[in-house]
Design goal:
There is one protein chain. The protein is of the alpha/beta class. Helices cover 26% and strands 25% of the residues. The strands form 2 sheets. A 7-stranded mixed beta sheet has the order 5-4-3-6-7-9-8, sandwiched between helices. The protein starts with 18 loop residues before the first strand and ends in an 8-residue tail after the last strand. The protein is built from 6 helices and 9 strands; from the N terminus they run E-E-H-H-E-H-E-H-E-E-H-E-H-E-E. Belongs to the methyltransferase superfamily. METTL21 family. Keywords: Cytoplasm, Methyltransferase, S-adenosyl-L-methionine, Transferase. This is Protein N-lysine methyltransferase METTL21A. It catalyses: L-lysyl-[protein] + 3 S-adenosyl-L-methionine = N(6),N(6),N(6)-trimethyl-L-lysyl-[protein] + 3 S-adenosyl-L-homocysteine + 3 H(+).
Length: 216
């Protein structure tokens, strides 16, 4: 696995743009960005695009599934999941919620608005607001990069996941500590790499409790 500095690859020129437009689920998705105000949390990274494409390709049955996105940032991944038929809870810390809410509401047609909720979640702290084990799928893109968050992220995943819950994490491995988190995750879940995009150097990992092979 290549270990490259955070922000490596061809994504940097687009980080400071106020908006970016993509096409998923047969429709344009226009995402507002705010690097100046929120930094890395308010721009679209390659890992989100790769996981969106993975979902769009039909690798996961999203129809009427309960999905939660962690560290959603701009909300692109959760928006795409909702467009593909999921009932989505899109989460991030309080500072990111205004941008997140704006993007979600701007990109979902009226009939899909009730299928998406934006909620505050600081990993390891706000878990009482989320029913344990209530989700079919947990999504995260490029959320593994700050070592001090790893224990709280793992605690959050354990709270959210029942036996049937599938976790999909997409990331570019930049540092040795990223691999440390994967080792931590393997201590609690069965973890497999299910996709690699060599053009963006992004991997998708699937995790599930107890080594079960359930598909959703």
């Amino acid at each position: 696995m290549a270990l490259v500095p955070y922000g490596g690859g061809g994504v940097l020129p687009g980080l400071h743009s106020p908006a970016a437009t993509y096409r998923f689920a047969g429709r344009p998705v226009r995402i507002e960005q705010s690097w100046a105000q929120l930094g890395v949390a308010a721009v679209v990274w390659d890992a989100a695009l790769v996981l969106c494409a993975y979902l769009e390709a039909g690798n996961v049955d999203l129809c009427d599934r309960a999905v939660i996105e962690l560290g959603a940032g701009t909300g692109l991944l959760g928006i795409v999941a909702a467009l593909l038929g999921a009932r989505v809870t899109v989460t991030d810390r309080a500072a990111a919620l205004a941008l997140l809410e704006s993007n979600v509401r701007a990109n979902l047609p009226p009939e899909l608005q009730p299928r998406a909720a934006v909620k505050e979640l600081t990993w390891g702290r706000d878990l009482g607001s989320f029913p344990p084990g209530a989700f079919d799928l947990v999504l995260g893109s490029d959320i593994v990069y700050l070592e001090e968050t790893f224990a709280d992220l793992l605690r959050t995943l354990e709270h959210l996941c029942a036996e049937h819950t599938v976790i999909l994490l997409s990331c570019r491995i930049r540092y040795e500590r990223d691999l440390d988190f994967l080792r931590m995750l393997r201590g609690r879940f069965s973890v497999h790499e299910v996709h690699y995009d060599p053009t963006k150097d992004v991997r998708i990992y699937k995790a599930q409790r107890g080594g079960r092979k359930d598909e959703i």
